[in-house]
Automatic annotation (TrEMBL):
InterPro entries: Pyridox_Oxase-rel, Split_barrel_FMN-bd. It holds the Pfam family Pyridox_ox_2. This is Flavin-nucleotide-binding protein. It comes from the Eukaryota.
Length: 275
């Protein structure tokens, strides 16, 4: 891996709309780490090669027990949270027992930032960000790394949430929870931002331009007002929750509206052989 990008290989090379492709590490990691639900695909039985896709909670992280993490000190992994007896965990465990490097996985993350409405149905689009990771996953057996990953994943939902709960997890919780970590062997992303774009043949038709509204409908997830639970005894919403809701809503709305006004991406015609 280079300092700032994932290497382009046959496994992760983007063939369609190459101008929207990105292999930038920071961009890909941001997409994954700001997506609440990751979609994890795997083949449970090689004899019946029908893939399964599971929605899971996960996070990219850099674990280093000796010092603050940095690119020089460790390797990024995708950590996935699951139940001890789930099929995915059992398959990963079985793969190691067979002497394999782990369970082959593909992890995908997608964020929709806008509906791009154009002159014709064929050119409608989304403003979006997506990322795909590929690699082999193993069970985290080291207790310190497992606790670190549990904290990482919990705080990816609401920052500082782990420290504001009853921790550490007790024995039963540690036994019932398993963490998978996937070594990232290839990764790529695609990003589309900008205003609508149409073919010249339609842009030259005054009758079409006069009757079809074009533009972008910004799309973003909005966090609602926190609602107290039935046994809550804390009078006010804690600061880390209130701050997260406010800042997250502002950030998401700002990105979606800014993306809606950017110039149309430079379109590079695809070769006939591209798929």
């Amino acid at each position: 891996m280079s300092d700032s990008t994932y290497p382009v290989t046959t496994a992760n090379k983007v063939n369609r709309y190459k101008h929207q492709a990105t292999y930038d590490i920071d961009t890909i990691h941001t997409i994954v780490n700001t997506t609440p639900v990751l979609h994890v695909s795997f083949v449970p039985n090689p004899a019946i090669p029908l893939p399964i896709v599971l929605p899971m909670i996960g996070q990219l992280g850099l674990y280093n027990p000796l010092s603050p993490p940095s690119e020089e000190d460790g390797e990024w992994h995708c950590y996935l949270h699951g139940y001890v007896s789930s099929r995915l965990m059992n398959l990963a465990d079985a793969a190691l027992k067979r002497g394999e490097p782990g369970l082959p996985l593909c992890v995908a993350a997608t964020k929709v930032d806008g509906f791009v409405l154009t002159l014709t149905p064929n050119s409608h689009n989304y403003n979006y960000r997506s990322a795909v990771l590929q690699g082999h996953a193993t069970i985290v057996d080291d207790v310190d790394e497992k606790l670190w990953a549990m904290r990482l994943i919990t705080n990816s939902v609401v920052p500082d949430r782990y420290e504001n709960t009853r921790v550490p997890p007790d024995g039963a919780e540690m036994q019932s929870t398993r963490i998978l970590k996937m070594q990232i062997e290839s990764a790529s992303g695609k990003v589309r931002e900008g205003v609508p774009e149409d073919e010249r043949k339609d842009m030259e038709r005054e009758d079409v331009l006069d009757k079809v509204w074009t533009g972008v409908v910004p799309v973003y997830e909005k966090l609602g007002e926190p609602q107290a639970g039935p046994y809550n005894r804390v009078a006010a919403v804690l600061e880390h929750v209130a701050r997260f809701v406010k800042e997250e809503n502002e950030k998401r709305e700002k990105y979606a509206f800014e993306a809606a006004h950017k110039p149309a991406p430079l379109k590079r015609p695809a070769k006939k052989s591209e798929t």
